[in-house]
Design a protein that fits this description.
166 residues, single chain, mainly beta, 1 helix, globular
Amino acid sequence: VVSLGASPIAAPSAIYQVITDPPIATNIIDFIPRAQSFFPSSSVPSSLLRAEVTTRASSRRGAADRVGLAFEGVKLQPIELLGQKVDNLPPLSVDLTWQQGLIDQVASFVPGLENLSSDGKDDADAPGYFDIEYVDDELLIICQQALPQQAQGGRFALVKVDNYDP
């Protein structure tokens, strides 16, 4: 998440996490042109690109406060370009689960690979995860892990909102 602001072209303007169908969570990131972030919103026509990153969350054995993540898809939807609504343009979508069927077929034919799973049954070693430091009805504080795995990553506070429309 921290690296999203490293682009010289686009800057994140809002980040939401939508969890309406657990264990699926959709991270919504609104991007604006980097130059637009330097000026008052009334002085420059706005542009907005919305990214939706779909993840599947899972518990981790032996770590009650750790949430494992498997990335399932990405969708980029243009919303506004130079002050004009363009949300009727088709999104660019990438399905990150297409290879699951192939992996499952190979695993069923190769001796010794029957425990290989791509469907989230055993994702204790999946590389994506975060630790929950605090949670209640209005606030979630997580700690993202950095590489190497022993390093502490950034902390993020997610506050409940009623609306995430652009």
